[in-house]
């Protein structure tokens, strides 16, 4: 699972997480909505969300790059983009409390998906797996993800495995029609023997997990 498309294809995703000062969240979103087109003119934005549950005053955005040289070129262009620096960076930086980024690959058995319609919610689930990588836990993890897909209550958007950042971390993004729809589906999944068996097998390799319910921002391609 760690070979093939991931290594033959240089495409990777940068996951950027910002903690916004509690009193400045509204102001930050306003700046994003007004000027973020200056950023997306340089490279492809996959999605941009704010946390609704599981975290507070936090935003997550995901960027797609062809390779590391592509990212370097984009970062250089941004540093020299006076509109971007003046209209977004200058007013936005004082609103941000903390920044964190990771580089991750889309796992070979997953293609980046899209929701069937706009207006739903996204669940971002982070799994910290035991050291060893997909060679150790990849097959069991894939089976657990597929078991949830087969229940039909949720839509898989993507599965990302970190390359830079905290290693052996897997981020899974799901889409649901609403928080209540997600809750009802989870209750059904917990009573599904196929899901229970797959999760029991996968959890042997799990150290910890956490999740957030995310709402897409106006600029997000994934809505």
Automatic annotation (TrEMBL):
Protein name: NPS3A protein
NIPSNAP domain boundaries: 13-111, 122-221
Signal sequence, start to end: none
PANTHER family, A to Z: NIPSNAP-RELATED, PROTEIN NIPSNAP HOMOLOG 3B
Designated gene of the protein: Nipsnap3a
GO BP, one annotated term: mitophagy
Family: Belongs to the NipSnap family.
Organism per entry: Pygoscelis papua
SUPFAM superfamilies given in the database record: Dimeric alpha+beta barrel
Cellular component aspect of the GO annotation: mitochondrion
């Amino acid at each position: 699972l760690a070979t093939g498309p991931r290594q033959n294809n240089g495409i990777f995703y940068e996951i950027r997480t910002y903690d916004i000062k509690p009193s400045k969240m509204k102001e930050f979103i306003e700046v994003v909505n007004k000027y973020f087109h200056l950023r997306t003119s340089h490279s492809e934005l996959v999605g941009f969300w704010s946390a609704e549950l599981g975290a507070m005053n936090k935003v997550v955005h995901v960027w797609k790059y062809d390779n590391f040289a592509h990212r370097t070129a984009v970062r250089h262009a941004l540093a020299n983009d006076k509109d971007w620096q003046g209209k977004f960076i200058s007013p936005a930086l004082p609103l941000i409390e903390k920044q964190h980024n990771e580089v991750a690959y889309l796992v070979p058995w997953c293609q980046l998906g899209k929701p069937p319609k706009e207006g739903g919610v996204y669940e971002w689930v982070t799994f910290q797996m035991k050291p060893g990588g997909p060679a150790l836990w990849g097959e069991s993890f894939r089976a657990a993800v597929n078991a949830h897909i087969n229940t039909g209550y949720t839509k898989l958007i993507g599965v990302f495995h970190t390359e830079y950042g905290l290693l052996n971390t897997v981020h899974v993004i799901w889409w649901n029609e609403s928080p209540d729809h997600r809750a009802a589906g989870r209750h059904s999944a917990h009573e599904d023997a196929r899901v229970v068996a797959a999760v029991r097998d996968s959890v042997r390799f799990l150290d910890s997990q956490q999740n957030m319910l995310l709402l897409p921002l106006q600029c997000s391609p994934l809505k």
